[in-house]
Here is the input.
Amino acid sequence: MSKQTSLVTREPFDRQKHVYRNDAFAELVKNAVRFFNGTPVHPLASPEKFHGTGVYMIYYTGRSKIYSRYSELNRLSYDFPIYVGKAVASGWRQSRTSHTVKKQTTELWSRINQHRNSIDITKNLSSDSFSCRFMIFEDASSDMIGTVEAALIKWKTPLWNSFLDGFGNHDPGKGRYEQAKSDWDVVHSGRPWADKCKGKTPSQKELLVGIEKFLSKHHSPF
Here is the structure.
């Protein structure tokens, strides 16, 4: 029995036929970033409850020797975040979200408060030393949340996104504690679930040296 002949004409591979460019979209992202930079800054511990999803930055202005560079850089204006994150609605990855007002939830507010709790439970940080700004995306613009977050991380290279990973982690759950605790949890111990993680990690001393090198390279005041 002969194989069925394909009716599809196969073309030679040409990469350029697969490349999508859109200067208008790039400008739209830049416009969103400009708007974000104009949003008010609030103490991390105090934003009142609000509805919405979106993108946020967290700034450090405290007295910790580890992050004194951030305190210096943010002394006059909030330009150097230590962390950038996003909060999306449940079902976002499966496109099951709704943009109707009646179904608005508080993911962005909840995410910021989760971070506040993670900071306050540590042995060497306090949420009083942190501030935040955030941008709420509504309706179809919420599809830009991940893109804007990525643009901000690329632009600002925040320490807790780039070198000291793990600040945004959640409890991995029973049966997964054989994995290593995050570098962030090594430097800032206190989250009970992180202490259950038994995998091999760098030493705190090694990470502190790495933090200093990272800040000198990416966030030099001169």
